[in-house]
Amino acid sequence: MGETCGVDETLRASGELIDELGRIGLRYGDAPPVVLPTRPDVVIVRAGSVVVKAHAPGAGREPLAARMRAVAGPELRGILLEPVTDEVMSAGDRLVTVWPAGTPVDPEDPDAAPWEAGARLLAGLHAVPAGALPPLPPAGGPARVGRTVARLASGPAASAAERVVRRAFDSLPGLPGLPGPTGPQSGPGLPYAAGERPAGPCSLAHGDWHLGQMVRVRGEWILIDADDLGVGDPAWDLARPAAWFAAGLLEPEVWHRFLAAYRAAGGCAVGAGGDPWERLDLPAQALTVQLAAAAVAAAGREGRELDEVEQVLIDSCQRIVRFRSACHSADTQ
């Protein structure tokens, strides 16, 4: 009975939250509110020309407010979607923001995926000096890896896949805000140490870029979701497609088109020429670990075995462990 009451309370709270988001949508929008599918920790309601987003539980008001001020200004216009209002509202214990509605990437039509448009938008974002914007927190990419891995079981309760993912995570050099094996580090090709802000124009990063972070508005593609926008290493914004390519899950032709478009647009994360993996290797490995951790957690929640793609990510984590072990052995000889 206790479990049933808990579920009922959760459903009641979700209904109350959706009702409040609907009321906000009616205030700014022009159609009856409809709940949109999204990830489990976020609730999004569309009301015609606007969407109302309830951010994940525990989101900080001040970091989100700083990010909203940044995207509401002229410096990111045409690159990152401008909100309907830069006000951060509340619905119960959730922070809420309001945005123009757009048309997302169609997951059923991979051939039409806007890889080049995404690359050009990221290059434009990375060219905006962070100093031209209101003060921003660190970009959220590196810290997200640790948070995702931390949700996995550890010790005797961990599954074989969970143990592989944790070994891969522990093999990576220490990252800002993550409990790496040797603590925070910095240096060529590595993310910046905790508390540091990279100098120069290449210091602004989206923090969680993938094709789901793009919509078409008035006929043009634009980036969305400022939840992880901040100061950091822009190479992390290329890390997800790099990780998929390295794992064999993204066609080489697509990856090379994406990278070529980014470089042609002046993208600074990997330079105009040379080996991009000098900058992408660690972020791509870290994103592989994050994706694998999320896949294992999802399979556990759904009570199923890993699917083929998820198993590929676990196999990639095993290769990361072998690679990092070989690097460590070479360094100590």
UniProtKB/TrEMBL annotation:
Any Pfam family the entry gives: APH
This protein's UniProt keywords: Transferase
Positions of region (Disordered): 173-195
Domain Aminoglycoside phosphotransferase: 101-269
UniProt xrefs under InterPro entries: Aminoglycoside_PTrfase, Kinase-like_dom_sf
Source organism, top-level taxon: Bacteria
GO molecular function list: transferase activity
Protein name listed in UniProt: Aminoglycoside phosphotransferase
Annotated source species: Planomonospora sphaerica
